[in-house]
Amino acid sequence: MDRAKFETLVVEAIDNLPLEFRNKLENVDVIVDDWPTSRQLKEVKLSHRSQLLGLYQGVPQTERGRGYGLVPPDKISIFQKPIEGQCHSNEEIGVKITEVVCHEIAHHFGIDEKTLRSIENKKYRKRI
What we know:
Elements: H1 3-15, H2 19-22, E1 28-33, H3 38-43, E2 54-57, E3 74-79, H4 80-86, H5 90-108, H6 113-127
Parallel strand pairs: 1-3
Antiparallel strand pairs: 2-3
Helix pairs in contact: 1-5
């Protein structure tokens, strides 16, 4: 998939978030990269770049105190090549982008990885 189409799907995933979440996205940039860097992989303790589909880097809203301000934006990276590698069609890519965007935005709102995995596993089991 070309980059412009992929980026459009990322924007659509954000635009399709419930309004109460979109309105509370504060000080966060969402970007698309082909692959995670070695530093990003090390940060999340992964060894292969195809394993990381997205990454939130920043201060979750739940940890921002009164002194929070005048800081660079948090960053959500969505990795195109690993997502494409896990999907077999453009439709699957769109679904996966939505899942990854929602996952990373949940980190922005303070939900930790363990809790997110538990929620995602319950959701997956309900579909089966």
